[in-house]
Design brief:
Belongs to the type-B carboxylesterase/lipase family. The protein has 14 helices and 13 strands. It is α/β, with parallel strands linked by helices and 527 residues long. The radius of gyration is 23 Å and the shape is globular. The longest helix has 24 residues.
């Protein structure tokens, strides 16, 4: 059954769907929220979408954004014409006006791959919320920065803000409440939605934040480097060593066939040492240009400790062993332990290799995690913990610590449940717990995953969906038959919800790991 909805830009034809448990909902996919960024708009900030005549088909997804996952594929997917979003709603105004909470989800994928319609709404729709998912420009198309007005950087993040503006202006036509929008992201998407708190561009467009396995103060989201040098490196991959000037690079990149451009970007991505896991092109602090809207004018790593951010309720957390996904393996599947511990020193400290502090910090790390024992298969769990802390857990634990200085509405979780919907990472390592990308398997319905779910898995699925939806509705995460109250993280209590077979709310069990890294970085916090 098809159904039509009138929006500001024109009429959409969507379709009625049914969840796997029999609940009706309406799906509108492939909705344009910005003008296609093609031709000379390839790297530009997003532009307002054009209205259309007649009825636009919204019964199938829009194009994926151009992407090539260099770690799993050699083939480019998607199109430059990709700025589309999807709306899934349990009811429409024609059936009775409602003001439903809105969950606006930004996908992860290291800013190099992913797409919105991969994430299905079944688990969330049960709780009478609206789910919006979005495509945004990735890789060089979304994150090239040449420090000129035409390419100031952060185009992909600005795309997501344009999608949020579309939600503000149109979600009422789908029974959504534009004054109750929870932005929700995982991994790189969590970095994006948490950076809204520091962005003048996103002000007033959202009311709560859920950040899973990522945030805006982490090195893997943002580092201080030279984006022009990176652009030149991509040009060299295209045999254009002569291109140095920013405008020459801009004009050249506009004309390069998209397949060649994405392959050249991917070559730069994989040419780096394996222990460098952040994307080649990342969000930047933008230079200011007249008439150009900035997404970020300062590093969130600086703004948040100084209380220069939008204070809203936040739900944030991590998998128990985030770093397990990023261990290097040899051809036989054995872990290749990184011997150069310089890669494990936070980049924002700007400590050069030859500095005397390097050996001192490396020695402290080896003593803390390995008790000065050799790093080997016998210390595999300790190695996973170290990698997890460096890349993820340290900034993920520091984030609520900073926010709790000025808010009593911060909720923190640690997901350590080990179930049938997990990726293979932890099982292949012979470890229990959850790696990067594991918890989200229990949040978005996929038929091939769901049919593997045992009773304990189903309990976790139901708990996560309901807690996330009640947080979106009221700012307080609750669920039926809960064994424990999820208490907020405060300066004194430091409550963390441990999500496991027996879920419990306890004082942060990893506080000693946070304190260790604060001692390394020289930061002070009343822990």
């Amino acid at each position: 059954m098809f159904i039509q909805v009138q929006t500001i830009n024109g009429t959409l034809k969507g379709k009625q769907c049914t969840t796997f448990y029999g609940k009706k909902y309406y799906s509108f996919e492939g909705i344009p929220y910005a003008r296609p960024p093609v031709g000379r708009l390839r790297f530009s900030d997003p532009q307002e979408p054009s209205p259309w005549q007649g009825v636009r088909d919204a019964t199938k997804p829009g194009n994926k954004c151009c992407q090539l996952n260099p770690y799993t594929s050699s083939r480019m997917e998607g199109s430059e014409d990709c700025l589309y979003l999807n709306v899934y709603t349990p009811c429409l105004p024609s059936e009775g006006l409602q003001n439903l909470p809105v969950l606006f989800f930004v996908h992860g994928g290291r800013f190099i791959f992913g797409y919105g319609d991969y994430y299905r709404p079944d688990y969330f729709i049960k709780h009478d919320v609206i789910l919006v998912t979005v495509n945004y420009r990735l890789n060089i198309l979304g994150f090239l920065c040449l420090n000129i007005p035409e390419v100031p950087g952060n185009a992909g993040l600005k795309d997501t803000v344009f999608a949020l503006r579309w939600v503000r202006n149109n979600i009422a036509y789908f029974n959504g409440d534009c004054n109750n929008v929870t932005v929700f992201g995982e991994s790189a998407g969590a970095g994006a939605v948490s950076s809204y708190m520091s962005s003048p561009m996103a002000l007033g467009l959202y009311h709560k934040v859920i950040s899973q396995s990522g945030n805006s103060i982490a090195d893997i989201y943002m580092v201080e480097d030279d984006p022009i040098a990176k652009a030149r490196q991509v040009a060299r991959s295209l045999d254009r060593d002569d291109l140095v000037d920013e405008r020459d690079l801009y004009e050249y990149f506009l004309e390069v066939p998209i397949q060649e451009l994405i392959v050249a970007f991917s070559m730069a991505e994989i040419a780096r040492p394996p222990s460098v896991i952040q994307a080649f092109f990342l969000p930047v602090v933008e230079m200011q240009f007249q008439g150009v809207e900035s997404f970020l004018t300062e590093y969130p790593r600086i703004d948040i400790p100084m209380n220069r951010y939008t204070n809203v309720p936040v739900l944030a957390g991590m998998n128990s062993h985030e770093g397990a996904l990023f261990l290097q393996k040899d051809g036989r599947g054995n872990i290749e332990f990184e011997e150069d511990f310089y890669y494990f020193i936070p980049q924002y400290l700007h400590i050069p290799r030859g500095d005397s502090r390097v050996c001192e910090i490396e020695a402290k790390i080896k003593k803390f995690y390995f008790h000065n024992q050799p790093v080997s298969e016998h210390t595999k769990l300790e190695y996973v913990n170290m990698v997890s802390d460096v890349y993820f857990q340290f900034p993920l634990m520091l984030f609520p610590e900073l926010l709790a200085r000025h808010s009593n509405s911060i909720f923190v979780y640690k997901f350590q449940y080990h179930g049938n919907l997990h990726t293979r990472i932890m099982g292949n390592l012979g470890l229990t717990g959850a790696s990067h990308g594991d918890m989200i398997q229990y949040q978005f319905y996929r038929e091939n995953k769901h049919e593997k779910a045992c009773e304990a898995d189903t309990k976790i699925i139901k708990m996560l969906a309901e807690a996330w939806c009640t947080f979106a509705r009221t700012g307080q995460p609750t669920w039926q038959n809960q064994e424990t109250q999820w208490l907020p993280y405060t300066k004194s209590s430091k409550h963390v919800l441990i999500i496991d077979t027996n879920t419990a709310c306890v004082r942060n069990p990893d506080l000693h790991r946070l304190q260790f890294w604060l001692s390394i970085t020289g930061e002070t916090s009343k822990l």
